[in-house]
Write a structure and sequence with these properties.
The structure is a single chain. With 411 residues, the chain is an alpha/beta fold. The chain folds into 2 domains: 82 residues, Urease, subunit C, domain 1 (Roll); 263 residues, Metal-dependent hydrolases (TIM Barrel, Alpha-Beta Barrel). It is built from 12 helices and 17 strands. β10, α4 and β11 form a beta-alpha-beta unit. α4 runs parallel beside α5, α6 packs parallel to α7 and α10 packs antiparallel against α11. Bound molecules: zinc ion.
């Protein structure tokens, strides 16, 4: 008996070894297996029925028909889309240094807002400068389950309001670039915004910091005195232009008086400027977005410009902005690309926004609801649509952090 066990032990080990090499994964080793979903992973050109296997914090496999016997937990994503976790390229999730803006900005944790929208990474748009970044890191970035990255403001104190944010003497390209090189995993670029003068020095200083640190410039375009044509000419491939579809009277619109895209905008798109929505509480208008989209200016990112006032008005969440573009005629695949791989490329993070094995398992599972829905812009103008995206589940680094309908819960 004992002899036969030892005799067979070799065969048993050989069988499991064979199984391991055949599947690459030993029985019951998968922590979470997402089955039957429609996987959309633009970076890897995946668009179809696939299963996704997660072990610990990592994605280990995306393939058809991974056996359930290999998994400890199975999520049935039938009739749902499985995508990389979304990246919000333009948020404001720091309050430590705000004075002038304190009333408008959120003091919630990013996690309270992100996961229910399928977002696993946010990029703060220069709420902190080099002087306030350590506090931002300590109070928010290090305490959030959401991956929080940042554009650093060229103004040393960040978004402190006027007049301190407009103090050109406090815009230091060298110190700003040193902060970037100190935190290369977190700081992805330099932001210039909320400058109202005619002076181009802030732009050149921000540009210089970008050159030192080899990162892109995010231009928030609160620069009414800078002509749009000249701004776009000065911007370089890879720089980011936000509040793209904005018709506010105090800034220049991307459309001319006949509703046509300005030449400078077309040229900017051609040279590789990244166009971000930057919806916010006052920066997104259907009467710009619809004609711009018809003329081919689709967004490269759905930055929410998140703050309290935008959360509770037309913007609501980034996934609602994605639904707006879906109903304005963008394909679902293009919408998912602009929420995942496209913004990951904009911040030079090839480890994000895709489902390649070895990456952290940041995943969104979404449904496309059919019905009659209203979508509102920041002038309280409405369009009707027949589809709305809904976040069924969000997984951040292998952990289920949002589960709307209890896909992972037991009966
Ligand atoms: Zn902003």
């Amino acid at each position: 008996m004992l002899f036969s066990f030892f005799k067979n032990k070799g065969r048993i080990i050989a069988f499991f070894a064979m199984l391991f090499f055949a599947t690459g994964i030993a029985a019951q080793e998968i922590d979470i297996l997402i089955k039957n979903g429609h996987v959309v992973d633009p970076k890897n050109s995946i668009d179809g029925k696939f299963d996704v296997a997660i072990i610990g914090k990592k994605i280990v496999k995306v393939a058809p028909n991974i056996p359930v016997s290999e998994a400890k937990k199975v999520i049935d994503a039938k009739d749902m889309y499985v995508t990389p976790g979304f990246i919000d390229l333009h948020t404001h999730v720091f309050v430590g240094s705000n004075q002038g803006f304190a009333d408008g900005f959120s003091s919630l944790s990013p996690d309270d807002i992100t996961f229910k929208a399928g977002i696993t990474t946010v990029v703060d748009a220069g709420t902190s400068g080099w002087r306030s970044f350590p506090l931002f890191k300590k109070n928010i970035i290090d305490r959030s389950s959401t991956r929080v990255l940042a554009f650093i403001n060229i103004a040393g104190g960040g978004m402190t309001g006027y007049p301190s944010e407009e103090n050109i003497d406090d815009m230091d390209p060298v110190t700003t670039s040193l902060a970037i090189t100190e935190y290369p995993e977190i700081i992805v670029g330099v932001k210039l915004g909320h400058f109202r003068g005619k002076e181009w020095t802030p732009f050149y200083k921000a540009r210089e910091a970008c050159n030192f640190a080899k990162v892109p410039l995010l231009l928030e375009c609160h620069l009414p005195e800078y002509p749009l044509d000249e701004l776009l000419k000065q911007m370089r491939k890879g720089d980011i232009f936000t509040h793209t579809y904005c018709a506010a009277s105090d800034r220049e619109c991307i459309l001319d008086e006949n509703g046509k895209l300005k030449n400078s905008v077309i040229q900017a798109k051609d040279k590789g400027i990244v166009f971000d929505v930057g919806h916010g509480g006052g920066m997104f208008h259907f009467d710009v977005a619809i004609p711009a989209l018809q003329q081919g200016l689709t967004p490269d990112a759905f930055g929410s410009d998140l703050h309290r006032s935008s959360m509770n008005s037309g913007m609501r969440s980034m996934i609602e902005t994605m639904s707006k573009f879906l109903n304005m005629g963008m394909s679902l695949g293009a919408v998912i690309d602009a929420a995942t791989w496209s913004p990951a490329q904009a911040i030079n993070r090839s480890d994000l926004g895709n489902l390649s094995p070895g990456n952290e398992a940041d995943i969104a599972i979404i449904s496309v609801r059919k019905g009659n829905f209203g979508f509102v812009d920041t002038k309280n103008k409405k369009i009707q649509g027949d589809r709305r995206l809904e976040t069924e589940m969000t997984i951040r680094a292998g952990r289920i952090v949002w589960d709307l309908n209890g896909l992972a819960a037991s009966n």
